[in-house]
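Form 7-S
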Amino acid sequence: MSSRTAPAAPAELRLRLPGQWWTADLTDRSAAIAAAGRLIRHRIGVQDDRAALRARLHHDFVAAIDRAIEGAGRRMLLAIEIAEGVPLPIAITVFAPELDFAPAVGTDADRVLDVLERGMTEGRHGTEQELESMQRVAVAGSRAIRTVGIRTVEVGSGADRGELDVAIVRYWIAVPDAKRVMLVDCSCSYAALVDELVVFFDALMRVASWGAPETGE
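Output:
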């Protein structure tokens, strides 16, 4: 398994999400950054005394968008409100990684995932906790390798700098009838709820579906 340039756009994974979500199409960087700016103004306000906060959030948003695009990200979503009065800091990013599978692999989902799992294990792609958690699950009418882990990330800057534990649940999904995978990266800063989050994310992935790539958004 190695990196290569994909010859065509992959099938689009459609997520059915409860509540209100902010979403950005990462295939158009300018539009994604503009959408981030609108979200920041809506959530933070436009008052002069919040200009520094808006600027910091905009900087962080742009950095996150650029990292996702660099990793072949296609869509970024942030939960605004899952249920009435229940805000959860959840982020979901959908990637279309450019991986090369030998022709002999075929398009059977588990055979594709066998090759992917071997590459992830031998290449140590992920933390020890994530690699040990690898499990096959049924998602979106296909199969996926799910990994679960908790990572400590730096947040804030200057006097406000600190660390935050983040639960990260990833689904490497075999695209039906193709030697391709999609990666769905789900994260939430309520790391203590990791077991409940896995149940929630599993439910979202089970009801996801596939469609042709959307254009002109």
